[in-house]
Amino acid sequence: MSLVAKALLVAFVFLFVPVILYDQFRAADQQKRELMTASVRGEGQIVAAALSPLLTAEGPPNLPEIGRELARFGNSLTTIKVLFGPAAGATGFFYVGTSAPLSNETLDAERAQLKSQGVLDQLAQNCSGTLPMAMRYTAS
């Protein structure tokens, strides 16, 4: 085999192998994202089913009980927050509860964190169905 043919073979390998590897890594990453989204969606449905009796009960909501119920589902990697959208025409959301108990002093910091992550800005669109249910954000 001539030197030119060997050089072309080496160049082909160095160009083609990274493309194949990139495609394989991209497909694996996409599959991982889909599995994580499905897992989060499933966990969300479980939490929603557990909270449903508390949220649909007659009379005023028992907010401390909602927080205790949420605490069952949270862990060191997952914090669940429940925000309530008021009736049509009103703006904003009420912070109902979280799986990680917060003091009154830290609620302002929590609200600032949700705003900096873009959650509050996109929440109304997400609830109306105009945004995908899964959003990317960077934890701060």
Which key phrases capture this entry?
about 140 residues, mainly alpha, two-stranded antiparallel sheet, 2 strands, elongated
Briefly say what this structure is:
The protein has 140 residues and is mainly alpha-helical.
Q: What does this protein look like?
A:
The structure is a single chain. By secondary structure, this protein is mainly α. The chain has helices at 3-55, 63-71, 104-116, 119-128; strands at 81-84, 94-98. It is elongated. The protein starts with a helix and ends in a 12-residue tail after the last helix. The model has no long low-confidence stretch (mean pLDDT 82).
Fold blueprint:
Elements: H1 3-55, H2 63-71, E1 81-84, E2 94-98, H3 104-116, H4 119-128
Antiparallel strand pairs: 1-2
Helix pairs in contact: 1-2
The shape, in one word, is elongated
How much β-strand is present in the residues? 5-15%
The largest sheet is: 2 strands, antiparallel
> N-to-C terminal Cα separation, in Å?
58 Å
How many helices? 4
